[in-house]
Amino acid sequence: MKTRINVGVVGCGYWGPNLIRNFSNLPDCTLLAICDLDLKRLNHLKTLYPQVELDTDFQEFLARPDLQAVVIATSAPTHYGMAKKSLLAGKHVFIEKPMATSSAECDELVELAASLGLTLMVGHTYLYSAPVRRIKDIIDSGDIGDIRYINARRLNLGLFQRTINVTWDLAPHDIAIIFYLTGMLPNSVNCQGNSHVTKGIEDVTNMSMNFDQGVFANLQNSWLDPRKVREMTIVGSRKMIVYDDVQQLEKVRIYDMRVDAVPPHYDTFGEFHFAYHYGDSHIPYIKQEEPLKVECQHFLDCVSTGGQPLTDGVHGANVVRVLEACTRSLRQQGAAVKFDAAKAVSPAARNGAPPQMAKP
């Protein structure tokens, strides 16, 4: 029988309540306490979860001797400080994305957690979604051939942030997915964007990542779009995949389409068309389960077994390295910036569902 883990959540604003809901419902977990500066917000959540204790002081929250794991869902600039204090207090740590505001901070947290024998995990929720895991299986099977390029669009109206730009807010999701699907880290990054609402904070950006073997990825992010778009296209040498997360049921569609070698000589337009292959499209059945629930359970499993999280601190640091490169590129009007691979570790070794996670 698994040991129940006492968990506390700090940050009860936009995303924190979703984490509170999931951890309170998991059988391997006791949601011990929640912490936030807003007492009114805490009292409201107390009506929903009467068993939970309330804290407005983070140090008092950490001082609870029966608290084993801390879940951090506060603003990005506070992640590093809170995570470090939590680790030094002997708590396992789950941090929402982005892991920190610099790769140096991320590396320090990774080294600290390792030295203390504590679990450090980052909340890149999409890697725990059934559609993304199914796409990973399809790619690994070789069904679509070699990946040629990936195009991702993550657009909506708001939510505007005051401490980070749209790339730091939205791009971590797709960067993490691309690392997971390709098993590769980029060698260079470009990013361009503009600030239309808040001076100095880009609300529309377009970034690209170049990988070895000719693989290319393009990511478009916006807080100024009339429609909510969550779409990724993976183009292979044999087939193509479109992942549309806004769709309720048919989130993944596989297209049997490709460009074959153009014939060296052709006399008619019809002959030219033989260079293209048009086949059927296929929608695989995917059993849906809330990704955040899977992610929270995975954190508990790793705490219990000492296993390596799929989205561990190294993974989180790699994503932040890309975001740092984007920031430097933005300041250089979109110039290519070399990816800092000095402490980066390729995601290839940690790809695939870990033993604690069931296949979709």
Structural features, described:
With 360 residues, the chain is α/β, with parallel strands linked by helices. It has 2 domains: 5-126 and 292-311, Rossmann fold; 127-290 and 319-350, Dihydrodipicolinate Reductase, domain 2, CATH 3.30.360. 32% of the residues lie in helices and 27% in strands. It is built from 10 helices and 15 strands. It has helices spanning 16-25, 39-48, 58-62, 79-88, 103-116, 130-141, 166-182, 269-273, 291-305, 313-331, and strands at residues 5-10, 29-35, 53-55, 69-72, 92-96, 120-123, 147-157, 188-194, 204-210, 216-222, 224-236, 240-244, 252-259, 276-282, 337-338. The strands form 2 sheets. The protein has a 9-stranded mixed sheet with strand order 14-13-12-11-7-10-9-8-15. It has a 6-stranded parallel sheet with strand order 3-2-1-4-5-6, sandwiched between helices. A hairpin with a 3-residue loop joins strand 11 (224-236) and strand 12 (240-244). The longest helix has 19 residues, at 313-331. It is globular.
